[in-house]
DNA sequence: AACCAGGACGTGA
DNA sequence: TCACGTCATGGT
């Protein structure tokens, strides 16, 4: 099984190459081969984010992209950037109406405006310390995937990120049950991979990239990974 | 015109 | 624990 999970990773990596997640606005690298590419990707640079505000920006992005496309989340981030509030203290100074107008394009503006405040207050209280997963899950608006995304992409901690695409692909290949819950699927990957941050970062990004192409609408016709299908 | 998008929360079995 | 409705905008 370990062999299978690694082989799928290698196949996807050869197909799409390094993805350069998580995109950062003020990073000017681009990856022109990406579908729907926006600026900010930094393939093969696993040292990003480093600055406090860049870490903060990744965290804002994890909230904003919940159940929406990255394009819309990125537009919301652009608006926040224009307001010069991709800095925790400044974001808290901004009134609710302005925040909602800025993030409106990412959907769920009422709850996300609350979530952004909650995670921002939490971030400030950390004073640079890396949060635990349990701490993150206590923050309103941070569920399993967002917590793992923050840990893996903002803080470079070896926490595998699972999303709807992950379950869709691997259950379609009959490797896992389609009703497997988040934590079991997460542990499935973590127990079948070396605990390596760049690998975790790339694997999740590659899954998203592959799923966007072949798993957005039924019937799923994945001829690329078909060779790995069990039975 | 329905369906989907890099989910989370509250509720009731 | 698990299933379900709700939250909202924008693209296909």
Number of helices: 11
Number of domains: 2
Assigned CATH superfamily of the largest domain: Hypothetical protein, domain 2
The CATH class of the largest domain is identified as Mainly Alpha
Q: What spatial form do the alpha-carbon principal axes imply? A: globular
Ends apart, CA distance between termini: 14 Å
Q: What does this molecule look like?
A:
With 231 residues, the chain is mainly alpha-helical. It folds into 2 domains: 95 residues, Orthogonal Bundle (Endonuclease Iii, domain 2), CATH 1.10.1670; 103 residues, Endonuclease III, domain 1, CATH 1.10.340. The protein has 11 helices and no strands. The longest helix has 18 residues. The structure holds a DNA duplex (13 and 12 nucleotides).
Question: What's the quick description here?
Answer:
By secondary structure, the chain is mainly alpha-helical.
Task: Record the SSE blueprint.
Layout: H1 2-16, H2 52-64, H3 70-82, H4 88-93, H5 96-103, H6 109-126, H7 133-138, H8 144-154, H9 164-172, H10 182-191, H11 197-214
Helix pairs in contact: 1-11, 2-3, 2-6, 2-8, 5-6, 9-11
This protein binds a DNA duplex (13 and 12 nucleotides) through residues 21, 61-63, 65-73, 104-112, 115, 140-146, 149, 161, 163-165, 179, 181, 204-205, 207-208, 211-212, 216-217.
Structure keywords:
Endonuclease III, domain 1; DNA-binding; globular; Endonuclease Iii, domain 2; mainly alpha; 231 residues; 2 domains
